[in-house]
Automatic annotation (TrEMBL):
<protein>
    <submittedName>
        <fullName>ATPase</fullName>
    </submittedName>
</protein>
<dbReference type="Pfam" id="PF04317">
    <property type="entry name" value="DUF463"/>
</dbReference>
<dbReference type="InterPro" id="IPR007413">
    <property type="entry name" value="YcjX-like"/>
</dbReference>
Length: 460
């Protein structure tokens, strides 16, 4: 893009922001939490699902003031575009499948048109517009943000504390042994690469272990455009090794700094530093499936990530010069894996999981809400008769394409103790998407509440 085009685009965005007609929505969540499905659903609901019966809680639609949404032409052809059409195609296949997992970042911008309900705008304009910007990225990269608050030595200490947890210890033994035998004076390319490969294998093993969420650095798992870059030669030495000023430790420290400066900081500046509103998606049900350690690590990962964002009320000045997130929605995703009467407990569980960050004072200045949602509902709910009683159940198709009707179990409203997990196994099954034809509204749970919370006040 030429400098002229760049300035034009920036000034357009600036004037839209000045007029308060532009929103950057941050979709935040660990890998597998449902970001891609959420964005796909959000775009589909806003472009094709605007029927009052389908989005009853979204006021602008319910009041028949919504005139439609449109995906904008990408201004910069070099910027990866969020593949919404391809994702919808996956859902239309027979049998339908979920969109593939995300390997790089992409973005999409939408223009939403509506009739203002009140105020000067309602009197002067027959239609108003709101621009919405959304970015998708691999969740693995999100866990890099906490690295900005640590130096290399601290990262090594952090990593080895984590690897010594009972559920991670066994897998780390070989890598620990490998490190103990290293010649710390050898900071050569070959030595670095060899140890990085060993660490990458460990990281991949953790990544494939359900409930091991905190895997850093994210680019070793999903390198994106950085495959082969020297700063990706990075691994945590044992804390006592990192403290020595050896050739290897110095080299790793350099790579760590360069990774923070050249990868994480620009990623943060580009995609997270200027968010207006944020949805944080958390897959609590699969963490319950994977037990106590998984719940603990999920909580730790969320707390670390949320420290990276700035929250506060939005005023014209802060919107323009010191953007802060003014509204945050905590959403327990994939709530369609549980029966509807369990959703209340699910949102209480999420609230408890986030107890610490919610208590932080910088957080309280934003408007927050917690709810259980399903961006793309994959089950139908109903009742079966059991012992003369109507028992709630859901019906869906397992990933092995078996039709099932069942009660998935109760969702605990608080984080269960380790002892409880020893005696009780949760089993919230993953499901295939429901068959869906193009231009039909995409089935969901509470996406209308999400839209109302995120956009409702901007479309009054
Ligand atoms: N039942 C159900 N499953 C979902 C939903 N959203 C995501 N999933 C499942 O979770 C997986 C990961 O979702 P995805 O959006 O790719 O997560 P991301 O890594 O955060 O982008 C999908 O492949 C689906 O199996 C939902 O609303 N309902
Ligand atoms: Mg994704």
């Amino acid at each position: 893009m030429s400098l002229y085009q760049k300035i034009r685009q920036q000034s357009r965005e600036f004037s839209q922001r000045t007029l308060d007609r532009h929103l950057r929505l941050g979709v935040t969540g660990l890998s597998g939490s449902g970001k891609t499905a959420f964005i796909t659903s959000l775009v589909q609901q806003l472009t094709h699902g605007d029927l009052p019966a389908h989005l009853p809680f979204f006021a602008v639609v319910r009041e028949k003031r919504y005139l439609g949404g449109q995906v904008n032409q990408q201004q910069r052809l070099s910027v990866p575009r969020f593949p919404v059409e391809q994702n919808l195609q996956h859902l239309q296949q027979q049998p339908p499948v979920w969109p593939p997992s995300t390997r790089g970042w992409s973005q999409l911008s939408l223009t939403l048109r509506y009739k203002a309900a009140t105020g000067l705008r309602a009197r002067l304009q027959s239609r108003s517009e709101l621009a919405l910007n959304i970015v998708d990225y691999p969740g693995e990269w999100l866990l890099d943000l906490p690295l900005l608050n640590m130096d290399y030595q601290q990262w090594c200490e952090f990593s080895w504390r984590l690897f010594r947890q009972p559920h991670r210890q066994a897998a780390a033994n070989d890598f620990e042994q490998h490190l103990r035998l290293l010649n710390l004076q050898d900071g050569s390319e070959l030595a670095l690469q060899h140890s990085t490969e060993q660490y990458k294998a460990l990281l991949q093993q953790y990544h494939d272990t359900p409930g091991a969420y905190l895997n850093q650095p994210g680019r070793l798992l999903v390198p994106g455009e950085l495959a082969g870059a020297p700063m990706l030669q990075l691994f945590p030495l044992l804390p006592e090794q990192a403290g020595e000023h050896s050739a290897l430790a110095k080299k790793l420290e350099q790579h760590y700094k360069s990774y923070c400066k050249n990868v994480i900081e620009p990623f943060y500046q580009q995609h997270f530093a200027r968010l207006d509103r944020q949805i944080i998606l958390v897959d609590c049900l699969s963490a319950l499936n994977h037990g106590y350690a998984a719940m603990q690590e999920l909580q730790q990962a969320l707390q670390l990530i949320l420290k990276s964002f700035h929250y506060g009320p939005s005023s014209l000045l802060t919107r323009l010069f010191k953007p802060q997130i003014s509204k945050v929605l905590f959403a327990a995703s994939k709530s369609d894996h549980a029966t509807p009467e369990q959703h209340k407990a699910l949102s209480l569980l999420l609230q408890q999981l986030l107890h610490q960050p919610l208590k932080l004072s910088h957080y309280q200045s934003a408007i927050t809400e917690v709810m259980a949602i399903a961006a793309i509902r994959a089950s139908t709910s109903g009742y079966v008769q059991a012992d003369g009683l109507a028992q709630p159940c859901i019906r869906g198709e397992t990933l092995g394409q078996k039709s099932v009707t069942y009660f998935p179990g109760e969702v605990p409203a608080t984080i269960p103790s380790a002892e409880f997990f020893n005696q009780h196994k949760f089993e919230f099954l993953a499901l295939q998407p429901i068959s869906w034809a193009e231009h039909e509204p995409l089935p969901h749970v509470r996406m209308d509440h999400v839209l109302q919370f995120m956009l409702g006040d901007k479309m009054e």
